[in-house]
Amino acid sequence: MCGICGFFTRERVTADQLTRMNNTMYHRGPDDCGVELYPAGEGYTVGLAQRRLSIMDLSSLGHQPMHSADGRLSIVYNGEIYNFQKLKKELSDYPFVSSCDTEVILAAFLKWGAGCVDRLNGMFAMALFDRETKELYLVRDRIGKKPLYYWLEKGNLVFASELKPILEYPGFSAEISREVIPRFLYQQYICEPDTIFRNVRKVRPGEIVRFAPDGVKQWKYWDLKQVYQEKKREPVKDYPTAKQELKGRLLAAVEERLVADVPTGTFLSGGYDSSLVTAIAQSVSEAPVKTFSIGFYEEQYNEAGYAKEVAEYLGCDHTELYMGEKDMFSLIDSIPRYFDEPFADSSQIPSMLVSMLAGKKVTVALSGDGGDELFCGYNVYDRVRQAQMLDGFGAAVKLAGDFFHITDRLPFKVRVIAENRDRETKTQFTAGKTGRIARQMVKNEGEALPCYYDFETSYGEKNWQERRMLLDMDTYLPGDILCKVDRASMRYSLEARCPILDKNVIEYAFSLPHEFKYRRGDKKRILKDITRDFIPSELLERPKTGFGVPLDKWIRGALRNQVMEYAQEDFLRRQGIFQPEYMRRFLEDYMKKGDGGSGSGTNYSRIIWAFFMFQKWYEMYAGEKIGKEKDIVSY
Predict the structure, then answer these.
(1) What is the pTM of this model?
(2) Domain coordinates of the chain in residue numbers?
(3) Does 2-222 carry CATH code 3.60.20.10?
(4) Which of 43, 138, 189, 512 lies at a 20 to 30 A Cα distance from 553?
């Protein structure tokens, strides 16, 4: 686990400059670092750098950049290949000198070329330079667990695990991508391949970007839509068989992720997903598994008691820490530094706190991420099902409402169903009003991205729940959940591993009939049944609460002055991004009524938090403070 960066350029960039880029990610790899430059022909130089968090083979043999035995290949790599021991046996003719997975990637590429990624099961972001062909390959794992950014400019390429090294590259000029801001305000994250900068992209999950003097090519080696359709054509029809097979794959995934030369543990919230991962880990571990939970004094958000009960039942070595609002507020100013882009999922705060807690005792922590998207666990999936059942009624109401000019006076829930007429956004039926607000908040310069994702029919799925699950796996999972887990854990030099998102688990889940996942309102049916094989249901059954914080209370209370300061009219005019008059009215109405002045009772705390986090990011990365007269539209 580490951070990587580098370039393929004709410009003169020194090793010292690359070192400065690399050191902006010290938190991702405090144990070791490596910086190297190589000639690449036609006036190009390749630079590869890495900050290392030692997990496998703690010796100097795991140092990166690492080179193949014949000197042809060089690699910097972030992640873990869980099946590397199996691959190593297939590559027995290679003269291995280390016991780490990085060397296995080099051997695999020499034997199978870029197609070797099809054989890798793990989480990874890598840059591999082939001296023979003068090609640099950027590769990201299938579901997007590990981040990888790149900047293409005038025939040069710069890449990194985070944006900070790219910002440090000599001559880099960043321009804010205004078109993504309304979508960010609505979604609370910036989805692949977009970034906050117009000229920087993210490598998409399951994608390879190949750069050489003759140009750039990119392709998907693993495509969610394609794999889903392939697996769906051969469904598993017997439920007991499906349960047993899935249980076996989860067991294998957890066992593989417990392999490390450093202490390991699990995040434990007390919900089904993290409890299942912890239960499996404990079932295969000789010693008590170290588990970590964060508790809150706000009872509405506190799940620590449930986690403690599960840990005690399983016999784990449990650590919990209760945090107050002051502890959480202390992290807010540092969020932009470690998340790089504007990011406003408020669960980032408890995620950072539990990572801080775990990082004091372990270097690897297993999480339960992915269970909701794969097995239909979010509460929104209930509403999506209801919306599909009422869609015909909504069409009739819309027709009648438009004819009699009464659509705007319909009850909110009725209006949402009535206005949900776009076939490409059927499962995102709440986007309308909040999306309009997000667009009104931002100055209209050019065409903004829609706040919703307008490609739902591309999944070829008639069941709205399945369609929304696929959409979430394409967008929300890599852009929000996995981004949050990566940045929060790496902030404390902690590696987070997600067994439920194992390739073999994902692809098997796609072959399961939907009723195995959702039946008569019972979400995550098969996953829950497996969990009950380890833990009594009475320790697990309760309403889903999530990992949130009291945003409305904060914004209208302790953070009120900060929020209003970021919306000062003179500052917004100099900043040139948000509409000053609209922001003033919207925020004043919200502070008075808590509903953005809509009169509907709808709470807009999430979109205001996104505005607040954007301004926190802007203040840090623009190097400006509120009240300065300098024009800071771009930098």
Answers:
(1) 0.94
(2) 2-222, 230-377+476-539, 550-623
(3) yes
(4) 189
